[in-house]
User: Fold these one by one.
Assistant:
Number 1:
Amino acid sequence: MTVRIVVADDHPIFRAGVITSLEETGEFQVVGAASSAEEAVQIADQTRPDIALLDLSMPGGGLAAVKAISAAGSATHVAMLTVSEEDENVASALKFGAIAYILKGISASELREILKGVARGEAHVSPQFAERVLNYMSQPPQRAPNSPLEDLTKREEDILRCVAKGQSNKEVAEALGLQEKTVKHYMTGIMGKLHARNRVEAALIAHEGWGLGE
């Protein structure tokens, strides 16, 4: 069976060499060539290849391409062919849907053998990555620091949301059924928690943190 493949790499000479190496035995048919992530996604969608072989560092980003192609299901399998040995790049490529991560520099015959396995659904990660990637992917995700907005009580949040809309203390009090002096007291506490110098700065923090007005 001839394996239909799309090759994406922004270096024309290297891309041409890969295409020649794949097609010279008659086992592969290159149905499209791309020089950017956008082109790779478009060509994969048009040709529906067995394999999309993607470079990591092409314009638009190989990771973006593997994510889009995998999500659309426009290629049966996705493989990366790259010089990057960064653990994060390997892990991200696999997470986004690639089943093979191949380092440039291997021989043409090795590449063909790996890709024939990929066409059968066999995963491949260059041996030197196996243990490192497993360790990287098993690490617990770093927890993002808490936003000071999370420290607000429900009442303080209600008040700040009104202030972020541009309401005065009097208008906030009327909207929430409170005394104006009570709102002022709450605002003092809110600004303290947010380390805001005034109500305008507090409102800006609310807009940024809660995505208000987006």
Note: The chain has a mean pLDDT of 88.
Number 2:
Amino acid sequence: MVTCEAFDRNVEVNGQTVVTIVEKAMGRFSEAYRERALAALAEEGITDPDPDEWYPQQAWLNAFETIADELQPHVLDRLGEQLPDVADWPNDFESVPDGLRSIDEAYRRNHRGGEIGHYRFERTDDRAGELTCHTPYPCPFDRGLIRGVAERYAPMDAFVFIEETGSTCRRTGDDTCVYTVYW
């Protein structure tokens, strides 16, 4: 797995996000997964995460890497997929394009302190669009996040499909991945 590096060492992640992912998302898998996530955070100096605190994004990213290495990368995909259901998420809309645009808003609510990156959505067809992910988060996490958001707002008859279509990828050391989303 490519090492995830924060764009700026001053960036912090909201403690509520840390607690939500560990307690609600990892806890959905199993108590053992939840405990491993807490141990990975403790290895980075984050013990007993507090929802009212802010933590270094790099420590959070290092914990992601540990989780992926020890529990398999697909866990990050599943974590991303659950995020819109377990996190405080902007919900004042009902369409896939608006849902995919909300990823950036949610990201900005939960990161501060420097160059955090961004998520940018552009509609390309009636039921398709491109999402550019310029963040330090692992590709499997973002794919799951995109799928989770798209499925949440897609019509009942829709089949959500995500394809990596950009010429750059974080797996190969770049800072950006581009996904085409169909629904």
Note: Residues 12-82 form one domain.
Number 3:
Amino acid sequence: MQPTPHTQDDRGRALPAVLLPGARDARDARLTPVGHGYTREEVVELQKNRLRDAIVQVVAEEGFDGAGIKTICARAGVGLATFYEHFHTKTELLFAAYDAGVAVLFDYVSAAYEAPPEGTESIARTEAGILALLEILADNPAFATFLLVEFEKGGQEAHGRVEDALEAAFLLFNDVEAVGAFGAPDPELVPMLVGGIYSHLSRTVRIGRTAELPSLLPALMKFSEAVLAGAGVSTINLRPPTH
């Protein structure tokens, strides 16, 4: 028996159309004891989901350093023993929440990129993908803060996971075709483009303007088009000075 999908939490609050960790009340969908509808495996997955929701919420509210395991367990409505059945450390849970959310993000953005009819120019597909990213983050503000502001405080492995995600995002722009004034993306420029977008989104969330993320689309597209339009063309003299 699978948990019944719902569009409201247990307090009647509307949930986003696409859920990222942290969107639900971490105590929502209270567990039914084993033998009363759920298998043991389903109970374990529900407990892990509640812990993932809880760490995203607590980290978004208190910061990574202020998010203690006891506070996370209290938010999730599970005991410390249950926590340690599933995760060895807070950082392990941090990575589990990050991996789960990033997988949803990539699936959602990729689907938006692929949704336009065959023959649609790649730049229009890119716009659809960026808009999807902005909208899903705006709809999931706790995860946006967790992802873009707090996650990298988790240490070197967290930095590595972010680098892996950014490298995967490079593929979206590498797929843009040369059309009209737009050149094929320069592989050396794509990381700067993706990194620039990531940095701007991080700043927007950090200063408390997460709900405004979709309004960034025109500026981000101008930035993307400016980079792509000049791909492979440089007017900067990069030769070292002569003496």
Note: The chain is about 60% helix and 0% strand.
Number 4:
Amino acid sequence: MKMNKTTGLIALMVGALPLTTMSVAANEPAFDYIAAQYQETRVNNTDLDGYKLALSASVTEDFFFRLSHANQSVQSFDVDLTKLGFGYKHYVQLDTVAYGGAGLVRERFKFNGISSSDSGFNVFVGARHKLAHNLELGVEAEYIDVNDDDDVVIHLQGRYWIAPTFSIVAGYSFANNDRWMLGAAFHF
């Protein structure tokens, strides 16, 4: 009888192990997602409206890559910004991660049918913290050098999970121009 209780207890603990692992993984900040966002940038008292598509994926436990494409326009002015970056993430705690990385940037302007494009680079450093199982806050500083111009941009972001694989994202970025965005992400 004693042997059956011990065996039953061990079986229960082993059976509960995957559930523990799932809840731990759910408490980590998000690095594996596909997102679509609406964004608006204020430039010289003019609002540029557009979208941003983003992909972020872990390559290993410590390294990740991210790819994004944004388009914004107003009347006959149109700008595209594409970024490809690689980064390193370090878990300070299970629910807090610091990260940094670098990447390539491609920017294209189009005005009245005349187009101009240039390439450059960016460097970024940030932190994300999971306040609760469904709420994450993040801050990132990014240096961008493209088109004979350089900027330091501060990104603030909040993410709210409405399902285990789906979240709503809101953010605000500021540098020379202010930008806000609202979107959704699918997590894998």
Note: The longest strand covers residues 114-132.
